[in-house]
Specification:
Blueprint: H1 8-18, H2 21-30, H3 46-49, H4 67-71, H5 80-93
Amino acid sequence: MLKGAKNKENAMKFLAFVSHKEAQAKFSELIEYGPTNSEAFKLIAPDKAARLPGNPATVSTQVVQNYDWWDKKDASGKTNVQKATELWQKWISS
Protein backbone atom coordinates (compact mmCIF):
# COMPACT_ATOMS: atom_id res chain seq x y z
CA MET A 1 0.00 0.00 0.00
CA LEU A 2 1.48 3.31 -1.04
CA LYS A 3 1.62 6.09 1.52
CA GLY A 4 -1.23 8.53 0.85
CA ALA A 5 -3.04 6.09 -1.45
CA LYS A 6 -6.56 7.07 -2.43
CA ASN A 7 -9.34 4.76 -1.29
CA LYS A 8 -7.08 3.12 1.30
CA GLU A 9 -9.99 1.50 3.16
CA ASN A 10 -11.17 -0.47 0.11
CA ALA A 11 -7.61 -1.35 -0.85
CA MET A 12 -7.07 -2.82 2.61
CA LYS A 13 -10.32 -4.80 2.27
CA PHE A 14 -9.12 -6.15 -1.07
CA LEU A 15 -5.76 -7.21 0.38
CA ALA A 16 -7.53 -8.93 3.27
CA PHE A 17 -9.78 -10.78 0.82
CA VAL A 18 -7.02 -12.00 -1.51
CA SER A 19 -4.98 -13.28 1.42
CA HIS A 20 -7.75 -15.66 2.58
CA LYS A 21 -7.06 -19.31 1.96
CA GLU A 22 -10.28 -19.73 -0.04
CA ALA A 23 -9.43 -16.95 -2.50
CA GLN A 24 -5.85 -18.16 -2.88
CA ALA A 25 -6.95 -21.76 -3.46
CA LYS A 26 -9.36 -20.60 -6.17
CA PHE A 27 -6.62 -18.55 -7.83
CA SER A 28 -4.29 -21.56 -7.83
CA GLU A 29 -6.99 -23.60 -9.57
CA LEU A 30 -6.92 -21.11 -12.44
CA ILE A 31 -3.16 -20.64 -12.81
CA GLU A 32 -0.06 -22.61 -11.80
CA TYR A 33 0.94 -20.22 -9.01
CA GLY A 34 1.37 -21.52 -5.50
CA PRO A 35 -0.58 -19.67 -2.82
CA THR A 36 1.25 -17.49 -0.32
CA ASN A 37 -1.17 -18.60 2.38
CA SER A 38 -0.06 -22.19 3.08
CA GLU A 39 -3.50 -23.00 4.51
CA ALA A 40 -4.84 -22.77 0.95
CA PHE A 41 -3.10 -26.04 0.07
CA LYS A 42 -5.68 -27.85 2.22
CA LEU A 43 -8.35 -26.68 -0.25
CA ILE A 44 -6.50 -27.56 -3.48
CA ALA A 45 -6.83 -30.99 -5.09
CA PRO A 46 -3.75 -33.05 -4.13
CA ASP A 47 -2.74 -33.73 -7.75
CA LYS A 48 -2.85 -29.98 -8.49
CA ALA A 49 -1.12 -29.03 -5.22
CA ALA A 50 1.75 -31.42 -6.02
CA ARG A 51 2.64 -29.30 -9.07
CA LEU A 52 2.58 -25.94 -7.30
CA PRO A 53 5.55 -24.11 -5.80
CA GLY A 54 5.41 -23.95 -2.04
CA ASN A 55 3.60 -27.28 -1.72
CA PRO A 56 4.26 -28.39 1.87
CA ALA A 57 5.09 -31.92 0.67
CA THR A 58 7.92 -30.73 -1.59
CA VAL A 59 8.97 -27.35 -0.21
CA SER A 60 12.07 -28.83 1.42
CA THR A 61 13.42 -29.80 -2.03
CA GLN A 62 12.89 -26.40 -3.62
CA VAL A 63 15.72 -23.97 -4.31
CA VAL A 64 15.67 -20.50 -2.80
CA GLN A 65 17.16 -17.67 -4.85
CA ASN A 66 20.41 -16.31 -3.36
CA TYR A 67 20.23 -12.63 -4.28
CA ASP A 68 23.42 -11.80 -2.39
CA TRP A 69 25.38 -14.20 -4.62
CA TRP A 70 23.89 -12.75 -7.83
CA ASP A 71 24.83 -9.21 -6.69
CA LYS A 72 28.38 -10.14 -5.61
CA LYS A 73 31.08 -8.43 -7.69
CA ASP A 74 34.44 -9.83 -8.78
CA ALA A 75 37.72 -7.90 -8.95
CA SER A 76 36.71 -6.31 -12.27
CA GLY A 77 33.44 -5.01 -10.82
CA LYS A 78 31.18 -7.44 -12.69
CA THR A 79 28.36 -9.02 -10.78
CA ASN A 80 27.63 -12.73 -10.99
CA VAL A 81 24.39 -11.93 -12.81
CA GLN A 82 26.36 -10.01 -15.45
CA LYS A 83 28.83 -12.86 -15.85
CA ALA A 84 26.06 -15.46 -16.03
CA THR A 85 24.19 -13.38 -18.60
CA GLU A 86 27.30 -13.10 -20.77
CA LEU A 87 27.91 -16.85 -20.56
CA TRP A 88 24.25 -17.57 -21.37
CA GLN A 89 24.27 -15.25 -24.39
CA LYS A 90 27.52 -16.79 -25.65
CA TRP A 91 26.09 -20.30 -25.24
CA ILE A 92 22.76 -19.65 -26.99
CA SER A 93 24.40 -17.82 -29.88
CA SER A 94 26.94 -20.56 -30.61
